[in-house]
Amino acid sequence: MKILAIDTSTDYLSIAITNGKRTLAAFHRKVSRRHSDLLIPTIKTLMKRSGLKPKGISAIFIGIGPGSFTGLRIGVATVKAMAYALKKPIVSVGSLDAIAANAAIHKGFIMPVLDARKNKLYACLYKSDGKRTKRISRYMLLTAEELAKKVKGKDILYMGDGVEILKAAGIAHPRGVKYWEPRAERIGRLGLKDLKKKRFKSAEELEPLYLYSKECDITGR
Questions:
Q1: Which of 183, 118, 180, 113 is nearest to 148 (CA)?
Q2: Which of 76, 100, 166, 199 is deepest in the core (most CB within 10 A)?
Q3: C-alpha distance from residue 173 to each of 3, 108, 170, 176, 177 (Å)
Q4: Residue-wise pLDDT tens digits, 57-69
Q5: Which residues have CB under 8 Å from 204's CB, separation 6+?
Q6: On the CB side of 72, how many CA atoms lie within 13 Å of its CA?
Q7: What does the alpha-carbon distance between residue 89 and residue 47 come to, in Å, rounded to a whole number?
Q8: Domains of the chain
Q9: DSSP 8-state assignment for residue 220
Q10: Residue 212: per-residue pLDDT
Q11: For residue 13, what are the contacts with CB-CB under 8 A and spacing of at least 6?
């Protein structure tokens, strides 16, 4: 089994080829707005490095967002084209899920927070037992002040470029994690359960996970 995993939801371009649990080749770098220039050439380079031909791909995993509208459009369009041409299944993984998984060793509450522009944040609350994270809220789009009200009284480990926004808003000195970015290797591992259960998306069904202001009023469980 060979999996091509991709995330373009942030300023980072993350691509990995895995055999399920082991990474065969990977690229992870901050590229800002150059996803469209680098995505296809980097995939080709990694496939060559791992000795994999396009038809040898078993499935394509993609970080579906929420995140950068432009980055997500580029990633989704590329995956759609590849899956359609190669007749391969697609597994979508929440990009915030991949970020939270970076801190799975932390026991307690974890919250990825990404800068959504226009004074808004993408956020989601997770709880970890020290090994695995479990999502316990919906994906949210809200202001720093709205977020503070929702999580009042909780001791949370924050992750993402939105941490600085929380600090600027004076929200109780939020702790942050330096290496927070959604990594394709994580996408590759998180999607395995859906792959085994054949919970696929077709190229026609695949869409980015966009959040809009009307979805701000979300109550976590």
A1: 113
A2: 100
A3: 39, 17, 7, 9, 13
A4: 999 999 999 999 9
A5: none
A6: 19
A7: 18
A8: 3-95+181-213 (3.30.420.40)
A9: -
A10: 73
A11: 7, 27, 28, 29, 31, 34, 35, 38, 39, 42
